[in-house]
Amino acid sequence: MAQSNYKFHSHNDYAQDFPFWKAYIHGASSIEADIFLKNDELYVTHSEDEIQADFTLENLYLKPLADLAKAGKLRNLQLLIDLKSESKTSLKKLVEVLNSYPELTQSDKISFVISGNRPRPNEYKDYPGFIEFDHQDLSDLEKTDLTKVALISQNFRDYSVWNGLGRITAPELKKVETAIKKAHDAGKPFRFWGAPDTKTAWSRFAEMGVDFINTDKPDEASKYLETLQTRKFELKTPISVYQPKFDYDKSTSPKNIILMIGDGNGLSQISSAVFANRGELTLTQLKNIGLVKTSSFDDLVTDSAAGGTAMATGTKTNNRAIGTDKDGKDLSNLTEILAKKGFLNGIMTTDFVTGATPSSFFAHVVERDDSESILEDLNKSKIDFFMAAGARDFEKIKDNFIQEDFSDFNDLENRTAVFLSENMLADASVRGDQFPKYVKKALQNLERQDKPYFLMIEAAKIDKNGHTNNASGIIEEMLDFDKTIAEVLKVADKNKNTLVVITADHETSGFGIMQGDLEKGKIEGGFLTHDHTGAMIPLFSYGPGSELFNGVYENTAVFHRILKALE
């Protein structure tokens, strides 16, 4: 396994079920072996009464290291040898043993660092060049020759009683950071022993600059630290928050419907963007809130096809099915129903138009990957215009849609396909504010028409970044979605006759917020899976009929409540 940006120390490594190898293959930068000299043999043990005959320093550590060195596969490693028996005789024997391994003592890949019962600092220089020391005194750094010092270690309990959960108190944090700074000012790496061994602690120590993070769980620490950077996000400049006016007439039915779907967008995804934006989003200004159960007909955990179909048709179906019921029969969807009521129908997405969510509002196929049939259904659909990525699809629909550049999209006299620039397929960090601007212009166009309209807007890449466990991508996509929401609410406030429903098709990745800093807009996330989950997802609504969407209900109710609002 590749080493992460953060180094960790496998404490009491000999106590692992596979000493040395478990830590080594998981990328440990430092491995600890307690040794005790008895009968002229160096045993790996914490105390004399725990000695096991085959647990010798050579068997467990030196021979495997030598084999790796001979094979040219030895990576950079610190072997921290903690002397439990008397210092001078133990060190003398250790030097003797190491001298029989020139492939190690002459290698620049491994360092042997003595801890535990060490000689006095002024005696460090008396030992061979391949021997270094773990210095454990911060009070004598200025008067000590640190040439042979490999690192500085301290007992964490001398500074704090923190158990690794929640936050360390401010006074104790200051003492801890001061100790780390003293070591770094002396030009030496730093380690705590006796430190809490939790994910929260590993993250905190990494942020503080602890050079070797102490752990008894090298496999877990490796996985956690290796992905730490991709699970962190900091928003330098907050986005603006729009304050809705709430002056629509609650007693009337809406003229227009805008359904906004954040693919994979659960409560934690929304919360992470809230915290990164210093506590507020445009979305969180809304007052009508519901919780939606998302399971499909044939599975507790839905996919986008079944999730989209439930909202588009009001019927549960099998995963992978789009616009068909559990038996494969076509279902009437919102765009077909609303077209009969004189509505214009539009779709906007950061995905391809054949993606599972947008397809659910016009197609009828039993397999979501059947793009050919989905495009055939688009030709026959009641969709008046769409904006999506992927101009490659136009060849299959050119007889039924005209293609326009976004800059020329100013009327709806013909069925129109607007294919967005190729970087719309990229994440928000690359495409910038394109999508909110496109939605704004599309709404200006729709507002000029003399017909009511239904518009489905999908933020597709929250889901994509959930699948790859990319916290930064999730938050950036959610912030982009919130900018889009602001543009929609501005139009709803202007015309006062538009129902806006904002939800998701499912949650992706089991995303959780592990810690952060509200003032600095910092977030660290964690993930349960790379797949979808069965968690309920929030729904926010605004405008005439929005009170119908409060409560807890099935995803099929979104369809039925939209139609009820129009009655």
Automatic annotation (TrEMBL):
Q: Which UniProt keywords apply?
A: Hydrolase, Magnesium, Metal-binding, Phosphoprotein, Zinc
Tell me which SMART domains the record gives.
Answer: alkPPc
Q: Name one GO biological process term.
A: lipid metabolic process
The signal peptide stretch is none
- What are the recorded GO MF terms, alphabetically? alkaline phosphatase activity; metal ion binding; phosphoric diester hydrolase activity
- Look up keyword Amino-acid biosynthesis and say if it applies: no
Which residues act catalytically here? 304 (phosphoserine intermediate)
* Entry binding sites for Mg(2+): 263, 357, 458
PROSITE patterns from the entry? ALKALINE_PHOSPHATASE
Coiled-coil ranges (or none): none
Instruction: Kindly list the cofactors needed.
Output: Mg(2+); Zn(2+)
Task: Supply the InterPro entries for this chain.
Answer: AIM6_PI-PLC-like_dom, Alkaline_phosphatase, Alkaline_phosphatase_AS, Alkaline_phosphatase_core_sf, PLC-like_Pdiesterase_TIM-brl
Question: What remark does the entry make about the cofactor?
Answer: Binds 1 Mg(2+) ion.
The family assignment reads: Belongs to the alkaline phosphatase family.
**Name this protein carries in UniProt:** Alkaline phosphatase
Organism of derivation: Zunongwangia profunda (strain DSM 18752 / CCTCC AB 206139 / SM-A87)
